[in-house]
What we know:
The protein is of the alpha/beta class. The chain folds into 2 domains: 11-179 and 376-397, Rossmann fold; 189-374, Glycogen Phosphorylase B (Rossmann fold). Helices cover 41% and strands 20% of the residues. The chain has 15 helices and 14 strands. The strands form 2 sheets. Strands 3-4-2-1-5-6-7-8 form an 8-stranded mixed beta sheet, sandwiched between helices. A 6-stranded parallel beta sheet has the order 11-10-9-12-13-14, sandwiched between helices. The model has no long low-confidence stretch (mean pLDDT 91).
Amino acid sequence: MDTDKKLNGLKITCIGQAGLEDTHGGATRLKTTINLLKGLGAEVNLITYSFYSDKFGIEQKRIDPLLQSTTVCVPNNLPKFLKAFSVLPVFLYAWKSSKNCDLIFTNFRCILCSFPATILGKMLNKPVILDYLDIDRMVPDIIYRYVAKNSNLVFAISHQLVDKVKVYGCKNAVYVPNFVDPDRFKVDPATREKKRTDLEITKDEIVIGYAGSFWYVEGVPFLIQAFKNLTKKHQKIKLAIMGAVHQPDIDDDVPELVRDIGIENKVILIPLQPAEEVPKFLSAFDILCCPKIDCDVNRLIIPIKIIEYLSMGLPTVASAVGGIPGTIKDGIDGFLVKPGDVKDLEEKLEWIIQNPERAKEMGEDGRKTAIEKYSYEAIEDTIRQAISEIVDRKKERK
Length: 398
């Protein structure tokens, strides 16, 4: 096969679990994948849910010549069982798109995406690619087994998920880690200065930053406690936390935790930002942290924020769980800490504070890792070849 083959003119129906404006890991993966596919010349028709919208209805947009978007907007305060009915309009729009497409692409974990995609694939005789990002214990394994067995290809963000989907009966799984555009995720000096001014950060203050979900598996309370301990020894430090509480039953109430331990004057709480704004805020920070806990979900993944942090070229501290130890070389391009160990986290953060020159080199090495292993250029050949093979195979069978 010609490895230089592009995907020019290939039409892809993509069913997504999040709108283009959403910022969580699944939405970020979706956007980066769509951008890569467009870069290879494919045309994408995206049909997606937006479960945390302040609107109710259907929005259709022509984003650019290669991307058409249809979003089913569902209000955030709607009960979950009612949100599930949004699968009906999503299925209808996906059916219309899939009749004229070459393949269907969707998120494996979200059953409101993968099950309709599988049914459409069988109905219309179209190849189906599933993107496997994490697990959902609420969905019975029998459904995932059906979806996996009836897919043509699964992209999995970790080797652990490759193994897991094969247990489900998938015969064609490819490791495709999370990836970023390093031209977007890098420190811009002008942006850094402006954001630090906006956030009232002085030049001599060191800012430890976190950006992402407040879901309890993220371990943000451990970061908050480690930071409080550090404030007793270091006066010129601040903690910046960017995110929001979406689901009170499973999310940590970060603002309340900050108030409870009395460090409001040292913590900058930043509301959830559009995806294009995230690198600008990260530019304002000095150290980036991913304090995930040890649990089933985290043992199977390599989170997108790790790749984004490394790409920024800032010293990164992350829990040694799941695929993270295979991504960060401890003490070389970042630091690994024991999940849930406040003391270990505190000590690694303090080392960075006390060794700014070595920490800077570590950040630079982290960016090199991101570019070499987790950039568009590093990933595109794998995706292009895998897609080309299943499309060619489908054409040969016709």
